[in-house]
Design a protein that fits this description.
The chain has 629 residues and is α/β, with parallel strands linked by helices. Among the domains are: 2-175; 249-322, no CATH class; 460-555, no CATH class. It is built from 24 helices and 14 strands. It has helices spanning 40-52, 65-76, 83-92, 96-103, 113-119, 131-144, 147-175, 209-216, 220-231, 233-245, 327-339, 344-355, 361-374, 376-388, 428-433, 460-473, 478-501, 505-508, 512-524, 530-541, 560-576, 582-600, 605-611, 616-628; strands at residues 2-8, 13-21, 28-33, 60-61, 94-95, 255-258, 275-291, 294-309, 315-316, 391-401, 404-412, 417-422, 440-443, 455-458. The strands form four sheets. The protein has a five-stranded mixed sheet. Strands 6, 7, 8 and 9 form a four-stranded mixed sheet that branches. Strands 1-2-3 form a three-stranded antiparallel sheet, sandwiched between helices. The radius of gyration is 37 Å and the shape is elongated. It starts with a strand and ends with a helix.
């Protein structure tokens, strides 16, 4: 139903109530008139009598004037209707303006009913209709009692109700992404609109190459290093000092290691025995040295003998070239942008400022790829342990790769966490990962997990939150309230048992009778509301997956382990900010899997990286032996 009220604010008097009741055949229209202030009570009583004849009436109106009217009528005439029925009517009333203001933007000067409905094609029978004009008609009618003025007011009020119905129909069509009835305009999602000003930072696509060249000459760093430096002596000196300071070759060496290798017996290329020594070759390794009180830069220079085969003239060295960056420096960098989720640019600036090591973002990115390749066996071991276990938590989330939606899955148990990259969200990824899994899978209600052939436990926290959300939007749905209360009454004693005895089936199996009673009572319920019918089907469809934890030791009733793990990737995703490729994301996931597994096992991720160990389990056992000693 659509409600519109006319009144005189100066006298605190309402003289006309209009109701329009939607119907599939012909809408019903009611008008309730008060000649004087003494007739306001009977006008309100007649309106409530019509409302009382309807089943669960739902009022729609435009603006806060009608909401204030309902509250004042309840306070002014409390004896006319029961307070509970009126409270329900007031709480269910929907202000269409409150929907439009934060969500829908019409190309009109105001959000008033006259402007919005006129844009949607509605027309009033009178010229320039407004509430102020209507109040003038009312005052003229009180002075003259002319019937045409009263009829004009009633028609104006009824047309306001019809205009509100028009707006409501358009809002419903917009929310369902359908074309609005009786209209020819199209809707556009505001997120898809390009902002005119101010524009966000980012690359601009120019149609003319000349514009691109001119734009590149306007960048801050370009002008400062190429233009301003030619006319500013201070900037010229600053640039010269920065170039000297950022040179890797100018970093002093802390330790010189001279290797005196024996001359080889034969050439590795032609097997000739005529080998001569022709000087030495050197290599610097940049690293960090940790101590109980801090960390400092450490540079070692290795000097090796160089040999030449006199027959084939091949020059060679006997030593294997070391990595340019030492294990401790690599561990520190990975700890910064994996464990602490600091962007790579910020890590590069931090290392440059603290240790005077001018590492670029590119060198850090290459180091990340190298370390991910080194830790790939540890990652595969994590994934294998998850699949071989008796319990797996699973979840998934989106990631932006080159402007496209890709997905990251997490599979975890109590000690291991494995992240897996996927091009899509279909069931192929969990099916491939959990092909040989024979334990219990804990997940949300995403249908892809239903295809895994194993015992499953659905997250009851997800179900409880869904029930709570729908119950909050339908507070007067008694069927929903009864269903939610019955579910809570079954689940609460189980949680109390878990808190007291842990996840032991010996103590939990006594609750299986209450589960049978819950489903027996549910089968006898004949719900009428769509929400309750939907939840009844959901409970019945997942009857074998909601209380699996009662039959297995150590199986939780929620999916918090997977949700906690996926939050770690979400934090890392913010620091990446969509600037990584598919390979880069996979490298991140290998390192993040190792980091989160270390955290679950109580192992320092930084210590594990510094150790150079290839496997977390062996490192953890050695750490335990040291702690025992």
């Amino acid at each position: 139903m659509y409600l519109d009220v006319e009144g005189d604010p100066d006298r605190d008097f309402y003289y006309l109530i209009g109701l329009r009741i939607s119907s599939e055949s012909q809408p019903l229209r009611y008008s309730f008139w008060a000649d004087t202030q003494d007739d306001e009570r009977s006008m309100w009583a007649n309106c409530l009598r019509i409302l009382g004849e309807l089943t669960s009436p739902r009022l729609f109106h435009y603006g806060a004037y009608e909401t204030q009217f309902l509250k004042r009528m309840r306070a002014r005439y409390p004896d006319i209707e029961s307070s509970s029925q009126l409270d329900e009517l007031i709480s269910s009333a929907k202000n269409l303006l409150s929907v439009i203001y934060p969500h829908v933007y019409f190309p009109t000067y105001t959000n008033g009913l006259k402007d919005v409905a006129a844009y949607l094609g509605f027309r009033w029978s009178s010229d320039s209709p407004s509430g102020l004009v209507a109040l003038g008609w009312r005052l003229q009618w009180e002075a003259s009692r002319e019937m045409n003025l009263k009829d004009r007011l009633i028609v104006y009020n009824a047309e306001d109700c019809e205009a509100a119905e028009k707006v409501a129909a358009v809002l419903a069509a917009v929310s369902s992404q359908e074309s609005a009835p009786g209209t020819s305009f199209s809707t556009v999602n505001a997120d898809a609109l390009r902002r005119e000003f101010p524009q966000r930072f980012g690359e601009v696509e120019f149609l003319l190459p000349e514009f691109r060249q001119i734009n590149e000459a306007a960048y801050w760093d370009y002008q400062r290093s190429k233009v301003y430096v030619r006319s500013n002596n201070s900037l010229r000196r600053q640039k010269r000092k920065t170039a000297i300071r950022q040179s890797m070759g100018s970093i002093p060496v802390n330790r010189l290691v001279v290797m005196n290798e024996e001359r080889p017996a034969a050439c590795p290329r032609c097997t000739s025995c005529l080998i001569y020594s022709i000087g030495r070759t050197s290599q610097k390794v940049y690293d960090l040295k940790f101590s109980p009180a801090g960390v400092k830069r450490w540079v070692e220079k290795y000097s090796h003998r160089r040999f030449i085969c006199w027959k084939c003239k091949t020059t060679f060295r006997l030593h294997t070239r070391k990595h340019k960056y030492g294990e401790s420096l690599c561990a520190y960098l990975l700890y910064q942008f994996i464990e602490l989720q600091i962007p790579q640019n910020a890590v590069a600036n931090s290392v440059k400022e603290l240790f005077k090591l001018p590492l670029s973002r590119g060198s850090i990115n290459r180091l990340k790829a190298s370390e991910a390749s080194r830790l790939e066996p540890a990652y595969q071991s994590i994934l294998e342990r998850v699949v071989r276990g008796t319990l797996v938590h699973a979840d998934e989330t989106k990631v932006n790769v080159a402007g496209k939606d890709r997905y990251v899955w997490v599979f975890t148990n109590m000690e291991d966490v494995a992240f897996v990259y996927s091009e899509s969200r279909d069931a192929a990824t969990p099916q491939a990962i959990l092909l040989n899994f024979r334990g219990v899978l804990i997940s949300d209600f995403y249908a892809a997990y239903d295809s895994i052939p194993c015992a499953q436990q659905k997250c009851l926290v997800h179900l409880m939150r869904d029930l709570n959300e729908d119950l909050s939007t339908q507070p007067f749905n008694e069927e929903m309230k009864e269903l939610a209360q019955n579910f809570a009454s079954v689940l609460k004693p189980m949680i109390e048992t878990v808190d007291r005895f842990g996840l032991k089936t010996y103590h939990l199996r006594r609750h299986k009778d209450s589960v049978k009673g819950f489903y027996a009572a549910l089968s006898r319920c004949d719900y009428q509301t769509d929400a309750a019918i939907g939840y009844k089907r959901r409970f019945e469809r997942n009857s074998g997956k909601l209380f699996t934890f009662l039959d297995y030791d150590g199986v939780p009733w929620n999916n918090n382990n997977a949700e906690h793990a996926i939050k770690a990737f979400v934090r890392l995703r913010r620091s990446i900010d969509g600037k990584s490729s598919a390979k880069g994301i996979r490298d991140y996931l290998v390192l993040l899997s190792v980091s989160e597994t270390c955290k679950c096992r109580g192992i320092s991720f930084l210590d594990f990286l510094r150790s150079g160990q290839p496997d977390i389990s062996s490192f953890g056992s050695r750490s335990d032996e040291k702690s025992v000693r």
